[in-house]
Amino acid sequence: KAGVTQTPRYLIKTRGQQVTLSCSPISGHRSVSWYQQTPGQGLQFLFEYFSETQRNKGNFPGRFSGRQFSNSRSEMNVSTLELGDSALYLCASFGGVNTGELFFGEGSRLTVL
Amino acid sequence: QQQVKQSPQSLIVQKGGIPIINCAYENTAFDYFPWYQQFPGKGPALLIAIRPDVSEKKEGRFTISFNKSAKQFSLHIMDSQPGDSATYFCAASSYDKVIFGPGTSLSVIP
To answer: Searching chain A, which residue's CA lies closest to the CA of residue B34?
Structure first.
C-alpha cells in the first residue's frame, strides 16, 4: 500500500506570493490533516478534512486554507506569504479506529524569501 | 485543557543508556496516547501507543508507562542505539482531535 504522498517536496517563494501544496492520502483513508512544523514550535495543527468537509481547524489566520476532493486528495493554500510561513508542512491521513493513529507524509519544505 | 506537556526538550544519552521522555495531559476525554518518532527530513511515524486502561506497553526496546490518576505517561527506550537519535513526540487523542506535545530531541552518542 502506497504511503502518504506530498508534492512538491521543496519550494521557494517570495513574500506576497501564494502557494498550493498537495497531499494524496493512503488509499481508503478519508481523513486528511495538515500540520505546520517549525523549529522550536513542534507540530501546529492547521485543519482536518473528512469526506470533503473541514471537520476541525487550528488557530491560523485566514491566509491558510484547504480543501479535499472526492478522491480524498487534499490541497492547502497559503496566500500573501510572509517570512514566518517558512516551515515544513506535513500532511497526515487517518483511516483506522484510533484518531491518534496518523500516517504522515514526508512534508513540503516551504522557504519564503 | 487541550495542552500536552512534554519534557525534556532535548536529551543526550550514551549508547546503551535508557532515555526517558515524560508527558502530561489535562483533558480526561483523551483515550489514546501515541508516540511518534521523526528523523531529519522525514515525517513523524507512529512508534507505539497505549490506551488508559493499560499501565504499561512494551514493543521491542520501547516501553510506555501510563499513570491514569496522575494523567502522565512516559516513553522508555531500553539499550538505546545511535540509530534511535531522532525527535520524539507524544500525543493524546480523543474521538475528534489529536494534540501533540512539543517534542524531545534525542541524541544517542556512541
So the answer is: A100
